[in-house]
Design a protein that fits this description.
It contains one helix and 16 strands. The chain has 210 residues and is mainly beta. The strands form five sheets. Strands 2-4-8-7 form a four-stranded antiparallel beta sheet, with no helix packed on it. It folds into three domains: 1-32; 34-153, Sandwich (Immunoglobulin-like); 159-209, no CATH class. Helix content is 13%, strand content 37%. It has one helix at residues 2-29, and strands at 50-52, 64-66, 71-72, 79-84, 91-93, 100-104, 108-111, 121-128, 132-138, 147-153, 159-163, 169-173, 182-185, 191-195, 198-203, 206-209. The relative contact order is 0.13. Keywords: Signal. This is Lipoprotein. Residues 1-23 form the signal peptide.
């Protein structure tokens, strides 16, 4: 009976052993890695000497804020960046949630960071309604205060060009909730064309845009 049980369990044991060996080989080959926001390059990062889970024995001396592309200052879109929690002996801290504050720049809304993974990386986010440079500082890494600049680009508003019969050009921006009205010639609404919330009225005596 026990012999039959051992024979039946053998494929399962081989499968588990194979998975463990494959995972170890992936680690050695560098095929497995942290999940980071797009545009963040870690090819030149120092090798990890080990992983610790107790922040009380960590000095965070080699921690770093890593940023990618610029953000969009629309007050809604989140700009993601990463913080790697690394000690002076090249060990990383796993399971710790870093906190940060904005020490320069207006219109920002910080978002809570994720717990750091087995590579010491935590993913954080921030929103801004004002364009420009925002300087971040990590606040809970002991005596180590890492800082980094993030850039938010201004939002380009849509614009409509209205050209009158006399050659005069008017450029009107139309953020959400605004209404733009322009008239060329006399208004006769015999034909109406609607697109993107605007109406183009055409008639024998002129045209109007509403």
């Amino acid at each position: 009976m026990f012999r039959n049980l051992a024979i039946n369990l053998l494929p399962l044991l081989l499968l588990l052993t194979g998975c463990s060996i494959e995972a170890s080989l992936q680690d050695l080959a560098g095929l497995r890695g942290p999940k980071l926001p797009p545009g963040i390059d870690i090819t030149n990062k120092q090798p990890i000497a080990g992983v610790v889970t107790d922040p009380s024995i960590s000095d965070f001396a080699k921690s770093e804020i890593l940023v990618g592309p610029t953000g969009k200052a629309d007050g809604v879109t989140e700009l993601q960046f990463a913080i790697q929690l690394m000690n002076s002996d090249n060990t990383v801290v796993a399971g710790y949630v870093p906190q940060f504050t904005v020490i320069k720049g207006l219109g920002t809304v910080p978002v809570v960071c994720t717990p750091s993974d087995d590579f010491g990386f935590s993913v954080c986010s921030i929103r801004s309604s004002e364009p420009g440079i925002k300087t971040l500082q990590v606040t809970n890494l002991g005596g180590f205060n890492a800082e980094k600049d993030l850039l938010f680009d201004a939002v380009v508003k849509e614009a409509t060009r209205i050209v009158s019969s006399g050659g005069e050009v008017t450029v009107a921006t139309h953020p959400s909730g605004w209404q733009m009205t322009g008239t060329v010639g006399s208004q006769f609404g015999s034909v109406v064309v609607e697109k993107n919330g605007y109406k183009l009225r055409l008639g024998a005596g002129g045209a109007a845009i509403e």
